[in-house]
Amino acid sequence: MTERTWLIEDGADHPATDDTAAAKALWTRRSALALTAGFFASGAAPARAAGFVQRLQPRATHIVVSKKNRVLELKSGQEILRRYAIHLGFAPDGHKTTAGDGRTPEGQYWIDRRNPRSDFYLSLGISYPNATDLARARAMGVNPGGDIFIHGGPRRSADRRKKDWTAGCIAVSDAEIEEIWTLVPTGTPITILG
How far is CA 102 from the centre of its chain? Predict the structure, then answer.
């Protein structure tokens, strides 16, 4: 097998046409391969790739919200990935029962939708009302409400001074909802505790 010699000059590579040209600035395919192999063997490329992989975060498999402690936790199995301070509805005590009551629901739900054009930066929809909530509302003869989200911070400066300012949603900062948005896939279960 003959080795083909390549001339590298003026930003172009092409086969060398004579011995003089070959003597100017030559690379053989074999030497180029040896240089590439040396780069990878040195560990330079894998170390860089490993650094990138280490920055990837596991996705949340469950969200737990404690209204009492004003905390939202993203979990992967039993491991807590992230913990955030939260703001709730303007009347946070108790379970949401009717539209406009200002309460944040309690119970088992899941993330059922995403809104990248939310009035509150980004938002993840919570599947309230569930079947139990609907049955309770029917029995009471009331509208259970809906459109409960985890979303970013307030737009009005007056709301920034309030502990609980939403209409029943769970609010975090805009930077935090960006992080939550990337770690929480649609379909993730959420448990909201009183």
Answer: 28
Per-residue pLDDT band for 157 (boundaries 50, 70, 90) equals: low
18 with 109, same domain: the answer is no
- Looking at the structure, do residues 92 and 32 belong to the same domain, yes or no? no
Give per-residue burial for 128-153: e unless 16+ CB within 10 Å, then b: bbbeebeeebeeeeeebbeebbbbbb
Q: Which domain holds residue 98?
A: 62-193
pTM: 0.69
68 and 47, same structural domain?
A: no
Number of folded domains that form the chain: 2
H or E element, residue 3? none
Contact by Cβ (8 Å): 36, 19: no
Close Cβ partners of 165 (under 8 Å, ≥ 6 residues apart) = 87, 90, 154, 159, 171
Report the pLDDT value the prediction gives residue 1, as an integer from 0 to 100.
Answer: 46
Mean pLDDT of all residues in 169-178: 96
Burial environment of residue 50 by CB neighbours within 10 A (0 to 12, 13 to 18, 19 or more) = exposed
Tell me the CATH number at 164. Answer: 2.40.440.10
